[in-house]
Task: inverse folding
């Protein structure tokens, strides 16, 4: 099982070059049953990363391209009148898949955004009074353009909070870019990718992540982080209890990827930028800089 | 980089400084206080509008202005008022130049000094509490300045905790540390703020002005029984020479060594008398003082005079005996006490004759005179009509209604016409018993004037004509509350019913009692009292005092430290303690360990610094992680870690 995870990471690194830590965070996010938000300028490989992950996790996936004129019905589906049966029947939308790639989510209007975000939180869709459960597992990988770009509707804090992590990709290094330029086109590579995990294996991994041991000492540290974020004037508002739970789940998954049976302070520190950055400061891009005061001032010992 | 204090810090600081300087509004010249207020408001406004702050040159000009104002008001920087003004103005000016943390500290410490100067003006328990509270806010400013996570309430809590922790220490230092007393002359320049009171001259109506003042004059605590109300005459100044309208004190010089010392017979009353700040250095002892402590002397008029600064509260130990014989009278004294402002008018002479003046024994004449007052429709009133011209005659023959001053002066005048040496005595009569504290409170409203006549074989004898007219004045004393409430004098439009009144009275008595004890035990704790108190504890020399100081300060410090540090130690994990030792060893070897570093981070860095120790570092780190973070630690792990850390050498 551990080998499968190693294989998955190695394969992903073959496709997306020079982004090991981001890939690791993204995998960690999925193992922690969280939704992932990838934010960066167009063309740095956001979509490629999400396609790769979907392929490798072996999930049935659907890409939804968000545009400014997309409607909630385009996402969740709608009821259509069936002339033969004289009945309305529900036609499920693209959201009824295990993995959704919501591309450029902040191009859509808030109404369409909230349709997706509601589904993310509830893991079910309610249309015309009837509730339809979404498949298990259900992941959303959303990509978004930086807020300063033209034609964007930035996600409000309350909705950004639904994503467990936000990952920034950034430009590739010179060497990675050279390999990219001289290698095969990425979409060909993705199409050839075999699934690295069986569905049952994914469930096992998620369960294993849940069972990673958390000591009282580590909870002390986690609570100190939460308390600091709430008291410090560096942040407009502190981390919510949901953020605390997310932080712990992500740290557990991170420890699992590291093949450890207990969470260490370093695990919390590793996932902190991705988990806390977008919750503490929605507008800023540099998550590492946002959480730097926490890492600096909260004592580990 | 320019230093930008946070808005919260500035608000805290300006707020506490405003509160600290506020009571000075009554002490320093209004011009200077307005100048300070202006600077404070300017600074307050500049929190939001920094461009309004004056530049260096502007501050310099303001400083010149400040110096000019200071000089024009005080002409000096020495003395209590001038020094306080200097500090307040300096504080205001300093507010306008905050360029760094250092300036914030300077301002806060300066504000502490200004807080201390309040006690040069007022020593009441309320002021002490106020200053303590304001110092709490000031401390909170310092805490806000130095904390990573500034929170108003948390900062106030911390400062309250600091103050509470330091109170026992302050108490011990207060009791044990040798008291320093300012030399007397240093305060004499400054005016004393006692307002009303008896003065050197008496006009018949002047005491009436005091009759509604509830201002406290002195308090008396008797060691044993209280004298009956009719004997509670508190002797003050003597008025002997008159021009017919006002009465003056005779010169006191040359009377100090009166050959005839008064003789006393029992019983005598011993008591502690605490004077409130006064203008005159008079101490109002019960007639007649026999024994009195240091700092007091009895002049030839049997009045007690203190050599302490009358502007300060002071406590005296006095014994008095109500039965006394002052002995003979000198020629000068006789002449002085028979002095008349010109020839008496015919109707006065007629009246004296009618009452058997000059013919009968003086006692008989005095008895007749008092009888005359009693029978001839004389009235006692708190609001006598003004009698500007020939007040004594007008009072005796026309108005026949007056206050104690009228009766005493008329009485003395008639006695002198009858060639009996007599004089007017000013002072206080009666007093209200404070049931809570068990002491007597004497207020300005108790001011009284009575008469003294010299009789052969008996010396100076007290006669109170007011007692003949209004015995209840002497028996029950003056009840200011009742006088105001009954509407006898239109003083306040509020109608108070009897119940409210008694509540008010009880509340006031309780408060007076607290205040009395504060004065006695805190303010009056001077060198002499301290010496007596310490001797009762067996501390009679400086070496012993030193031991006591060190032991009690160390004891309190130890208790506080133990309370502060104990919970941490109990919570600490033994594995963490060992790991800290390990880190400390590495830190000595030059490894920088931040508080945000986890064990693996530390291990990585340590291995880089000392690759030769890599194995030991890894073992210790692994054990520590297992003990602290993992579920599968074993019983022996702690012992192994202990051994490893103990053996570990960098």
Result:
């Amino acid at each position: 099982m551990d080998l499968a995870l190693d294989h998955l990471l190695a394969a992903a690194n073959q496709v997306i070059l020079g982004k090991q830590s981001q890939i690791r965070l993204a995998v960690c996010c999925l193992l922690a049953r969280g939704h992932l938000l990838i934010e960066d300028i167009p063309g740095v490989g956001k979509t490629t990363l999400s396609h790769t992950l979907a392929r490798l996790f072996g999930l049935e996936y659907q890409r939804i391209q968000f545009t400014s004129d997309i409607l909630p019905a385009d996402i969740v589906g709608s009821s259509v009148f069936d002339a033969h049966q004289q009945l309305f029947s529900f036609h499920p939308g693209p959201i009824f898949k295990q993995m959704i790639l919501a591309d450029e989510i902040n191009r859509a209007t808030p109404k369409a955004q909230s349709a997706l975000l509601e589904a993310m939180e509830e893991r079910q869709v309610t249309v015309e009074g009837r509730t339809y459960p979404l498949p298990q597992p259900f992941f959303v990988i959303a990509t978004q353009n930086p807020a300063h770009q033209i034609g964007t509707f930035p996600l409000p804090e309350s909705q950004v909070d639904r994503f467990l992590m936000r990952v920034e990709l950034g430009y590739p290094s010179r060497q990675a870019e050279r390999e990219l330029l001289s290698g095969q086109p990425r979409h060909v590579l993705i199409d050839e990718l075999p699934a690295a995990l069986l569905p049952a294996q994914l469930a096992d991994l998620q369960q294993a992540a849940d069972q990673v041991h958390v000591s009282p000492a580590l909870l002390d540290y986690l609570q100190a982080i939460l308390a600091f974020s709430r008291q410090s004037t560096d942040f407009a508002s502190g981390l919510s209890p949901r953020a605390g739970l997310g932080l712990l789940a992500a740290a557990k998954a991170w420890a699992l990827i590291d093949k450890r049976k207990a969470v260490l302070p370093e695990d919390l520190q590793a996932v902190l930028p991705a988990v806390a950055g977008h919750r503490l400061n929605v507008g800023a891009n540099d998550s590492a800089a946002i959480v730097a005061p926490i890492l600096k001032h909260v004592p580990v010992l | 980089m320019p230093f930008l204090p946070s808005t919260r810090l500035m608000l805290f600081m300006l707020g506490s400084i405003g509160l600290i300087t506020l009571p000075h509004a009554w002490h320093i010249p209004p011009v200077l206080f307005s100048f300070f207020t202006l600077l404070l408001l300017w600074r307050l406004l500049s929190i939001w509008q920094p461009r309004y702050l004056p530049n260096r040159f502007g501050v310099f000009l303001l400083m010149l202005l400040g110096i000019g104002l200071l000089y024009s008001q005080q002409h000096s920087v020495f003395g209590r008022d001038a020094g306080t003004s200097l500090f307040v103005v300096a504080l205001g000016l300093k507010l306008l130049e905050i360029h760094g943390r250092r300036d914030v500290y300077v301002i806060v410490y300066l504000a502490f000094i200004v807080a201390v100067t309040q006690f040069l003006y007022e020593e009441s328990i309320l002021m002490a509490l106020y200053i303590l509270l304001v110092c709490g806010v000031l401390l909170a400013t310092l805490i806000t300045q130095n904390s990573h996570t500034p929170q108003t309430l948390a900062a106030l809590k911390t400062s309250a905790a600091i103050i509470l922790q330091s109170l026992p220490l302050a108490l011990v230092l207060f009791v044990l540390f040798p008291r320093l007393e300012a030399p007397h002359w240093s305060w004499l320049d400054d005016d004393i703020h006692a307002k009303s009171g008896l003065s050197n001259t008496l006009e018949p109506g002047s005491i009436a002005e005091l009759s509604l003042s509830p201002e406290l004059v002195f308090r008396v605590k008797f060691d044993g029984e209280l004298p009956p109300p009719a004997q509670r005459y508190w002797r003050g100044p003597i008025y002997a020479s008159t021009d017919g309208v006002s009465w003056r004190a005779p010169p006191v010089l040359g009377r100090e060594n009166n050959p005839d010392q008064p003789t006393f017979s029992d019983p005598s009353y011993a008591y502690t008398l605490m004077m409130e700040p006064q203008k005159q250095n008079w101490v109002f002892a019960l007639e007649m003082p026999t024994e009195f402590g240091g700092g007091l002397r009895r002049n030839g008029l049997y009045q007690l005079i203190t050599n302490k600064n009358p502007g300060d509260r002071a406590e005296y130990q006095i014994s008095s005996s109500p039965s006394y014989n002052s002995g003979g009278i000198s020629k000068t004294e006789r002449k002085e006490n028979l002095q008349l402002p010109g020839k008496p008018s015919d109707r006065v002479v007629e009246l004296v004759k009618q009452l058997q003046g000059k013919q009968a024994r003086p006692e008989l004449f005095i008895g007749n005179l008092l009888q005359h007052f009693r029978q001839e429709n004389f009235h006692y009133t708190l609001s006598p009509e003004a009698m500007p011209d020939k007040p004594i005659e007008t009072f005796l023959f026309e108005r026949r209604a007056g206050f104690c001053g009228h009766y005493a002066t008329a009485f003395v005048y008639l006695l002198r016409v009858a060639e009996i040496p007599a004089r007017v005595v000013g002072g206080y009569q009666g007093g209200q018993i404070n049931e809570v504290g068990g002491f007597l409170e004497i207020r300005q409203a108790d001011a009284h004037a009575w008469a003294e006549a010299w009789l052969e074989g008996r010396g100076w004898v007290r006669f109170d004509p007011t007692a003949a007219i209004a015995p209840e004045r002497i028996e029950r004393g003056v009840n200011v509350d009742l006088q105001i409430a009954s509407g006898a004098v239109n003083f306040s439009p509020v109608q108070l019913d009897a119940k409210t009144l008694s509540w008010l009275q009880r509340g006031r008595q309780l408060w007076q009692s607290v205040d009395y004890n504060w004065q006695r035990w805190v303010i009056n704790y001077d060198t002499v009292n301290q010496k007596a108190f310490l001797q009762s504890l067996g501390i009679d020399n400086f070496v012993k005092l030193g031991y006591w100081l060190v032991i009690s300060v160390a004891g309190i410090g130890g208790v506080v430290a133990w309370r502060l540090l104990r919970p941490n130690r109990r919570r600490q994990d033994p594995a963490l303690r060992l790991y800290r030792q390990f880190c400390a060893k590495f830190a000595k070897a030059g490894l920088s360990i931040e508080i945000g570093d986890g064990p693996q981070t530390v291990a990585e860095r340590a291995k880089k610094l000392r690759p030769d120790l890599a194995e030991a570092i890894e073992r210790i780190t692994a054990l520590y992680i297992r003990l602290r973070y993992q579920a599968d630690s074993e019983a022996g792990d702690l012992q192994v870690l202990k051994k490893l850390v103990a053996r570990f050498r960098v």
About this structure: Chain A has a mean pLDDT of 84. The first helix of chain A runs from residue 2 to 15.
